[in-house]
Amino acid sequence: MSLSPRTRPATGMIVAGLFVVVVLLALALAVAVGIDVAGALRAFASGSAASFFPPDAATSQGDEIRSLYDIVFIFAAVIFIAVEGLIIWTVVRYRRKPGDDDLPPQTHGNNLAEILWTVIPTVIVAYLFFISWQTLNSVDAVSEQPEMQVRATAGQFQWTFDYLADDGETIEYTQFLPTGENGGLFAPVGVPILMMLESPDVNHAFYVPRFLFKRDVIPGQTNQFEFTINESEAGQTMRGQCAELCGIGHRAMIFDVHALTQADFATWYDEVRASAQPSGGPPASLPPNATIIDIAAQNIQFDQRELEVPASQAFGINFVNQDNGIPHDVAISQDGSLKFNGDDLPTVGEISYQIGPLEPGTYDFLCTIHPTTMTGTLTVK
Amino acid sequence: MATTALHPAATGYRSGLYEWVTTTDHKKIGILYLLNSFFFFLLAGVLALGVRAELAIPGLQLVTDENLYNQLFTMHGTAMVFLFIIPILAGFGNYVVPLQIGAPDMAFPRINALSFWMLPLGGLLLFSGFLVGGAATAGWTSYPPLSEDRPLASTGPGQDLWITALILIGTSSILGGINFLVTIFKMRAPGLTLFRMPILVWTVLVTSVLVVMATPVITSALIMLFIDRNYGGAFFDPSRGGDPVLYQNIFWFYSHPAVYVMVLPAMGMISEILPVFSRKPLFGYKAFVFATAAIGALGFSVWAHHMFTTGSVYLPFFSLMTFLIAVPTGVKMFNWIFTMWRGKLTLATPLLFALGFLSMFLIGGINGAFSASVPVDFALHDTYWVVAHLHYVLFGGSVFGVFAGIYYWFPKMTGRMLGEGLGKFQFVLMFIGFNLTFFPMHMLGLSGMPRRIADYDAAAGWTDLNVAATIGGFLIAASMIPFLWNVFVSLRGGKVAGDDPWEANTLEWATTSPPPPYNFDRLPEIRSERPLFDLRHAKATPAATPPGPDRTQQLPPGH
Amino acid sequence: MTTETRSLTTEQSPVAGLAHDMRGGISNPVLGMILFITSEVMFFAGLFAAYFSIRAAADIWPPEEFGHAVQIFPLVGPATVLLIVSSLTCQLGVWAIRRDDRTGFIRNIGVTVVLGVVFLVMQAADYAILYSEGLTLSAGTYGTTYYTLTGFHGAHVFAGVVMLAVVLYRGLAGQFSSRHHDAVEATSLYWHFVDVVWIALFATLYILR
Predict the structure, then answer these.
(1) How many CB atoms lie within 10 A of CB C5?
(2) Which end of chain A has fewer CB atoms at under 10 Å, N or C?
(3) What pLDDT score does A370 carry?
(4) Residue B483: pLDDT band with limits 50, 70, 90
(5) Hey, is the C-beta of C2 within 8 angstroms of any chain B C-beta?
């Protein structure tokens, strides 16, 4: 051995010393940069973002997944402590003493040991597989007659939720705003909800951390899953986010999930359906001196942010889509409910909308396909 | 240079740049692999620093354009996998395997050279994407439809350059794999039966089987994507009868065995180092060989565990196979530990990195088991949990193994020892930096932070952990400084190594450091997997097995 | 010896006549070729997997507009027969050189090269017919898979023809004998592989459909 054990200080001490030095340096650096080290340590201990466990589950399926996680975690912790402990013990106990040039016993192996540490782990993983399989069957189960059906359409880069009638096809209400107090998925607690996932463009994934669940959204196929929000979650708002890289807007593809009591949900559902006007409903023709607005969409933006039309008069919008292969439309809403929803242009093209008279006030105009990035103010007076 | 009756006027050994560019000597080619791969390690590492710098706090600071961020992590992953870890392990194999089997070179030296030179060319192709309007942005996995030529997806030549670069690099890999297999099967010294081969040779053998059988499958996926992008193909276009999930299946059919390509040779290197620094043989040699073969075989049956959330996979089968592959991995872990048990450990730098490998790979294996459980994977897939897992096995595992190998074989390659003080300092810095970077990612993934996002909400509560991870990332980068300084100083004036500075067991230490071009003047008798140990301790141990048949008598007279 | 300008190839090198290591088994180049063929089989496996997967998901396959275009006669069926015959002539060439019948070897390899070229020409002519009937690479999944599979096979046939031509050239230059003809063995294995893949393709595209 090129290191002469006789003359060098104990290697282990050097290594341990270096560890201490580096850790202290890192802590000093962290404090110097302004990080709240104490706060972070407290957060770690209390189990907030820095926790060994997922957040408390909001659905019954999530609860089952959490129980499974807890079991796997126990096995993982025990195995880690045992094996890592063995490694550390071995290193400490069997260090070569300076000047000791004798060979240790040259053990080549032990068949019994090999059998034991093949069979026992096999039993362990077989058990883990079995309980995982049981949980999977329960989590993936879908009712024969779903009580409520919602379709989530994931496009680049926002979520739209269609509330469907019992036939699973007819759209009763479209929630085009993904976030905010008027946006996102409103859902009743305690009701099994069938969620169907579709995408018109690239792969996305529907992920709600508090559901402990995600499912990919793949163009050309409709994935579906069922979830039931726990009663205790009524009144809570949860975050959801796209979890499959989908391009330059991936980080912003966020949606809210608002859990309501069944009564509150029924109230909300009736309200939003009542205030949403059916799309189009144009006057037969515009009067000769009606206002016509020209507006264009390019690079997923409108070319104007402020529009103005006279009140109580029908008016028109000439809309030009300049984005090749990207659908756009123009819609008008007020306080989150649609007053006008124009047909969309799937690619480059032009369309003329005719819109019935509006009461004076401030409205939003938007593209329902890109409601968070393509929006502006329509003043009616 | 000795002359022979065949070539009385053979010229002297060429030197300098011309020699290095035209060499077919496996030792020089091995070193070229190491140098090229390390360059891409540093380059891809810088890209990762860009990612970490952006993610430290909420808000887009460095990267105002998410398109650039997507290029950063795409190219980081792609370069690390295809231009660093796979080739650097091939480089170690190139240098060490012929020496360990007592052969004068690889079976096909010119193809060996070709395999190497395809790599810098592939790297150039890949990174030239940055010069032509943007490199690939669809992740190293490059799923269609995002990787197709469509609006808001992957228009522009960056993705096509990515495809062609990978086809070139994959071909290099396949040729290398063929070379290793023929060399190992056909060119072992007399007496070196299969079950006396060093474990590194076994792991390179199994790795090469995986390379030869799996890499062509990703070539087919890449070609299909190229045809979709450039010739109106419909493989992955659902509007015309194609299927995006088809790509995922074909891609992962290669890319899962590929992760064993990325770790098995590193495990082989650890299996050389632990016995030497414990002064005992590897515990359970045969079990080790069978476990390696089992991992290779099982590795072909688990690919869809990367696709549990697609809704298109037969979940129980892939979950079961994934759980099962933990068993041979565990066998290896215990065999390594019991190699050290009751040994006499010298805590030199190669052993420190080997210990780092054991501990970090243990964590990586354990957190992988969480993902094997399908319902748990529903929560963890595509979050930072997976980023933690893959870095614990690939960095904590393979990269620590690579550094163990560098410190162990640098004396053989250069004739000089690397400094122990700087080596230990690098180890500590890297170990702490690595864990500080990637351990918090378990928590981030659990709390819901998805992968591949350029930015996140301050309200999500992820900031502190991200800051920690960023500091750790820069610590890892800092650990390269003592390492590079160590290499620089040691090359010029490091302690002279001699033939066998570590008192090692295998044949590469039975020749000079560095070896002559033809590798060996004479070979010791080979009676076990530790021929040098046997030579040194002829009285301490009886011959492990009787020597193999003396094949020299089979040659006709006059040879 | 050092004043020779002709390069020292296997059969003409001074050591060619000496006995050397006769450890059993196949030669390194042949083992290398077998492994290479293994990798190529896996490449085609990926393409076949794509084909069968897309086919299984389709309601009607081949799609109505193309079902009639893909026909065994007049070109593809005879081309298949010629390719199979070329495998036979190739093997006859290998057997010839193994018993040092250099004339027979040259003749058979020459015929093999010609047959290979004829196959490529017939394939190209078939492509022209299909194109005129509207089956192109971008004609949906059927066109994409058809041309990708047959096109890459054709590329492999082309590579095989080049290898055979090199073997033919080296044979004419007297570089092969019964003792040294590894390149012939390896090339013949590759040619047989190309033939087997074609039989699988033919069965898949033209018979199974």
Answers:
(1) 4
(2) C
(3) 83
(4) very high
(5) yes
DSSP conformation class of B301: G
Which residue, among B94, B129, B120, has the nearest Cα to B40 in the 3D structure? B120
Closest residue on chain C to B187 (Cα): C28
Are the Cβ atoms of A95 and B345 closer than 8 angstroms? yes
Does B548 lie at the interface with C, CB-CB under 8 angstroms? no
User: From CA B76, how far away is CA B48, in angstroms rounded?
Assistant: 6
pLDDT digits (tens, 9 = 90+) for A51-60: 899 999 999 9
Shared fold status for A11-99+107-139 and A291-380: no
- Cβ within 8 Å, pair B242-C36: no
Domains of chain B and CATH, by start: 18-553 (1.20.210.10)
Phi and psi torsions of B377, nearest 5°: -65, -30
Three-class secondary structure of residue C120 per DSSP: helix
Domain range summary for chain A, segments of one domain joined by +: 11-99+107-139, 148-276, 291-380
Contact B54, B469 (CB under 8 A): no
Q: What is the DSSP letter of B383?
A: B
| ipTM of the shown complex | 0.92
Task: Pick the closest to residue B87 from B43, B150, B49, B37 (CA basis).
Answer: B37
- CATH node for A291-380: 2.60.40.420
CATH match for A148-276 among 3.30.70.250, 2.60.40.10, 2.60.40.420, 3.90.226.10: 2.60.40.420
Mind listing the pLDDT tens digit for each residue in B487-531? Answer: 999 999 999 999 999 999 999 999 999 999 889 988 988 999 999
Please tell me which residue of chain A has the smallest CA distance to B496: A2
CA distance B559 to chain C (A): 7
pLDDT at A286: 74
* pLDDT-based confidence at residue A157 (cuts at 50, 70, 90): confident
Q: Considering the domain A11-99+107-139, what is its CATH architecture? A: Orthogonal Bundle (1.10)
> CB-CB: which of C45, C50, C142 is closest to B224?
C50
B contact chains, 3+ CB pairs < 8 A: A, C
Q: Does C144 lie at the interface with B, CB-CB under 8 angstroms?
A: yes
All domains of chain C, ordered by start, with CATH?
24-63+74-208 (1.20.120.80)
- Residue pairs spanning A and B at CB distance below 8 A: 340
A151: which strand partners?
A162, A196
